[in-house]
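Hi R.,

Here's the chain you asked about this morning:
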Amino acid sequence: MPFINTKTNIALSRKQKELAKTALADCIAAFNPDWTKVLMCNFDDNCALSFAGDSIKPAAVTEIHLLESAMKAIPAPALEKVAKAVTEVISKTFVIDTDHVVVFYAGSPKWMYNGQDVK
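And the predicted structure, written out as tokens:
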């Protein structure tokens, strides 16, 4: 059950968020197509976010949260490929230069869904 959390210092429209959500699901499908059925996305816009000391130029940080065991099973080149695709989605959809988009992975040792452990 992946969770993608994006923070940016610009305002986002509902349409931009919906377009990003759809495109991010396509990115995550590279790991496992079934994950798109339980993908959660969050978009925090108008954040007090600065990049390299600049809070004026549009910037974004995107966290891709995965179950730790699943993340460890994904080869590094696949993680890099998806991170690059996510960067492109955020850049194109939100009109942010790619050099102001940061993407990172976070793994959790345990997730609960519907009151049960996710394995």
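The radius of gyration is 14 Å.

Let me know if you need anything else.
M.
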